[in-house]
């Protein structure tokens, strides 16, 4: 499971980690039933504190996406709701657009342009 964080992202690290894990589940890199690497390994790979990863995992568990099992680690329970997943991706897009100085209205205009180009 390859996760990356954007160092320029203004969101707290635990939110970025949660979004990265959700993305991995949504895109099928990790599927329901798969076990996630230990929090320490994820933290080392991402260059963050293990407590940051644990906070993210707990939030995703509370959302019903992950399951904690003593002695078996953390497993993916289900995929996120498609609409909720899209909301997360759009939020990420808006955050990235803001880093480039592009406002929400401009992003919407780009989406409309692309919709008109699509068959």
TrEMBL record:
Annotated ranges, domain HTH gntR-type: 11-79
Gene Ontology terms, MF aspect: DNA binding; DNA-binding transcription factor activity
InterPro entries: Tscrpt_reg_HTH_GntR, WH-like_DNA-bd_sf, WH_DNA-bd_sf
Pfam families (UniProt xref): GntR
UniProt superkingdom: Bacteria
Name under which the protein is recorded: GntR family transcriptional regulator
Keywords for this protein: DNA-binding, Transcription, Transcription regulation
